[in-house]
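Anyone else keep sequences and structure tokens together like this?

Example one:
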Amino acid sequence: MIQANGYYRKKMAAAILRFEDSRVTGPDSLRVSRLPAADKGGKWEICGICDGIEPTVFNRLKALLDAGRREEAWEGCLQYVLDNTAAVRSWLGSDAYPGVEFILRDHFFNSGSRNTGKILQRALNIHGAGLVVDGIPGKQTRQMLQTVLAQTGESEFLSTLNERRKSFYHSCKQFPVFGKGWLNRSNEAYRFAQSLI
């Protein structure tokens, strides 16, 4: 098992950025791209960091790219992903489950805190947790996460989490437009998460 230290968290963040823009593999390929018309994040993005949601961050990163400071922009993107998804680390309470941490961070970045909390609670309920699915991973959810992971092991719970994630995507109104990409992302994220175990 890999401990999710700073080095591996940066690898997690880099994978999330790649899922947001498959043409970006590092500082040299970092770019500003136009969002699809149906996307509610604004008009432009840098690996999922959108001008309509995080204009200050987007503008700072774009200014770095425009100035040719690509390494600094890349590090800024990595740090933004880690900061934006930091709550996941508190839900887990330890570094012992990097695969689960990654899946939750990726979904958090892609779909927000509440939706990530819900897929987590639904996955835990499949393993008998009996939680109210409110999307808020409070004390009971966090305790049940530790209990279920200890009972099932990370690999089994990771599979359940991935299935709940796919079910969430299928339930979204925009699934007909974005569904194929979401499911591909889910599968890629699952493979990456398995490589961390």
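And example two:
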Amino acid sequence: MLSRIAAAIVPAFGHLTISSDRPATPTGTIILGNHTSLADPGVVLAALRRLEIEPVILATAGLWRIPLLRSLLTRDGHIPVHRGTARAADSLEAAIRALAAGRNVLIYGEGRLPLRKDAAEAAPENFRSGPARLAAATGAPILPLGQAGARRITSGTRSKQLAGIITAPARRPRLHVHLGVPLHLPAEIPAATAAAHQAVTAAWRTAARRLGEPAALAA
């Protein structure tokens, strides 16, 4: 349901294009993306739906406090992440079960939004170990995903975020999502985390270059 809603709404807020290096996405894959904006989950879901992929998302548990959104998240089997609590490990176990059932799981390597206030693109920040631990526990491949442009919809302070959402339908910023080639990570968690970060950074760079973003063009 969320994927369908995103696919219907996102085109009103920007012009979305997609590119891919992969021949096809197998079931039971960890889709690993870069997180830059409150808008990018919607952008990513809309892009994946065009490719007939509807993943389970690992998302902050705070979203389940929003009544309507809680119903949609629960209905689609998305997974709340209770960071910093005794329930933090529950999300990993739920993701393992989803992968075993043949679902694709979408997870963000950084685990949080960047602290900067500008709307420009920048390479992904350091990754947490969660994606690497999930891959090690399941043997599932990761599909690196890079998205660029979502910060042009909304980013910065609360007032700037609101202004961005209100004006986006008139501005229609360009958005691009790029899918890399699925790969299996090394067994060691530090090496796996570094490899995952490198792969997602490469996918982000491709997406950002498609938009002519200076951060990607200068690298």
